Automatic annotation (TrEMBL):
Domain Amidase, residue spans: 24-466
Pfam family, one: Amidase
Organism of origin: Nocardia jiangxiensis
GO molecular function annotations of the record: amidase activity
Enzyme nomenclature, EC number: 3.5.1.4
Presence of the UniProt keyword Isomerase in the record: no
Keywords assigned by UniProt, alphabetized: Hydrolase
Name by which UniProt lists this protein: Amidase
InterPro entries: Amidase_CS, Amidase_dom, AS_sf, FAAH2
Enzyme class at the top of the EC tree: hydrolase
Length: 483
């Protein structure tokens, strides 16, 4: 029996029924990686000996009557998470020998839940790209078309899942880094509400793993089914035990609805800053049609929706505001001079990026105040709607582009070129206000590439988007093994 493409839920049921052992599942996953990953390059740091030992311990624990959420399930971990005994480089050659002294909080939670970690998955340099390649580990290819990217920065995790290399993975998301790879590779991912899952130990080397509160960035689950996302999120959710965890526990509210026809959904497929490609629009419409057919209330516009252009501008400024913190002084001063020369009427995203790079603390406070107004607007919107359905990026996976100057790259959308980073506006729609967003596959493009959409929900009501993802999976289908 082929186990490598089964869901984590199916594997857990088989383990409990005694149909298979964790050792067998782990050996099958390792055999698949050794056979197929030469062409994909998703697993950049294998940890097979320790995985086999962990699987043996899981089988012994089950024989003693133990049962934990992920007991004996093979999984992978994004390279950017600290893991004792393995390098954490973030793709940066100067840190290829850096080995952390302790596990990241989420790695510890995986192990406590009984998961068997097969190894770490590839990332872009410094996690700063929508593709996954670096000088240390090379390029991760899309399992559907090896000439195209798997996405980034959790591209190795998405490619691993699509290739059957483990049933689950954990990644991170600042600029769509969970959702974009899921969309490109045809799998599921969930960007949790900001602050829901502790991030300590998901830190660039050689910085110490401190319990800091990150702005915009989150850690979250990836899987081949929507239900598996929920199971893994339950393992990951909760504050850092060194800080808020001393006094607080997390209890997420249940999903707003349990039937597809009861959901109130706002559907978006157009953005003022960038076109939406035909393949992605078709995916959005496929979801909208399924909702309408099930009796859900579906709207295409609402006066309550926060202004998308301003949202994109605020997100861009916040995203780039920390990017120059370690720049040489002369480089920073050159950027300041360029920003001073911008016209006050220049409201382009290029201008927003430049202004963000040189923003003062006073500037940041003003942008943050505008963000709070947007958060208030989202609260009002979610009084009338349960979920917003919209694109993750404007296109399916595109060909590898390793131009080192990311600002000079261009994205082709149905024959028209746009600045590469402009595609982030859809991901930023949920990231800027800190909302939960679930990426789901919706089918394939005419070229056979996966296409996904995101389901954005109210803050800390992650179960609402996850439940809708499960219901849509039943209605329109979900993950398909690459052909």
């Amino acid at each position: 029996m082929e186990w490598n493409f089964r869901s984590a839920g199916e594997l857990a049921a088989a383990l409990r029924a005694g149909e298979v052992s964790s050792a067998e599942l782990t050996d099958a996953a390792i055999a698949g990686i050794e056979r197929d990953d030469k062409l994909i390059n998703a697993i950049c740091v294998p940890d097979f000996d320790r995985a086999r030992a962990a699987a043996h311990r899981a089988d012994q624990a089950r024989a003693r009557g133990e049962d934990r959420p992920l007991l004996g399930i093979p999984v992978t971990v994004k390279e950017s998470y600290n893991m004792v005994g393995l390098p954490t480089t973030w793709g940066m050659p100067q840190y290829q020998d850096f080995v952390p002294a302790e596990d990241a909080v989420q790695v510890s939670r995986l192990k406590a839940a009984g998961a068997v970690v097969l190894g770490k998955t590839n990332v872009p340099l410094g996690l700063q790209d929508l593709q996954s390649f670096n000088e240390i580990y090379g390029t991760t290819n899309n399992p559907w078309n090896r000439g195209r990217t798997s996405g980034g920065s959790s591209g190795g995790s998405a490619a691993a899942l699509a290739s059957g290399f483990g049933a689950l993975s954990i990644g991170s998301d600042l600029a769509g880094s969970l959702r974009t790879p899921a969309h490109f590779c045809g799998v599921y991912a969930h960007k949790p509400t900001l602050g829901l899952a502790a991030t300590r130990g998901m830190v660039a080397p050689p910085a110490p793993a401190l319990p800091v509160d990150l702005d915009l960035a989150v850690v979250g689950p990836m899987a081949r089914t929507a239900r598996d996302l929920t199971v893994l999120l339950d393992v990951m959710a909760g504050p850092d035990p060194l800080t808020l965890g001393v006094a607080h526990e997390v209890t997420l509210p249940p999903a707003r609805h349990d039937r597809l026809g009861d959901f109130r959904v706002l559907v978006l497929d157009q953005h003022p800053f960038i076109a939406t490609g035909a393949a992605v629009r078709a995916g959005v419409h496929r979801v909208a049609d399924a909702l309408v057919a099930s009796g859900a209330r579906v709207e295409r516009r609402s006066p309550l929706l926060p202004d998308l252009a301003e949202a994109a501008t605020l997100y861009t400024q916040l995203l780039f505001s920390g990017s120059t913190a370690r720049f040489p002084v002369d480089t920073y001063e050159q950027l300041r001079a360029r920003a001073a020369g911008l016209s006050a009427d220049d409201h382009s995203l290029d201008a927003a990026r430049l202004r963000g790079m040189v923003s003062s603390h006073r500037d940041w406070i003003e942008v943050n105040n505008r963000r709070e107004l947007h958060r208030h607007g989202w609260r009002q919107l979610f009084g009338e709607f349960d979920v917003v359905v919209c694109p993750i990026t404007p296109t399916p996976a595109y060909p590898h582009d390793h131009d080192p100057d990311l600002l000079e790259r261009r994205l082709d959308i149905d024959g028209v070129e746009y600045p590469y980073f402009d595609q982030l506006v859809w991901a930023g729609l949920a990231t800027m206000p800190g909302l939960p967003a679930t990426a789901i596959p919706t089918g394939r493009s005419p070229e056979g590439l996966p296409v996904g959409v995101q389901l954005i929900g109210p803050m800390f009501q992650d179960r609402t988007t996850l439940r809708l993802a499960e219901l849509l999976e039943q209605q329109i289908g979900g993950f398909r093994q690459p052909e």
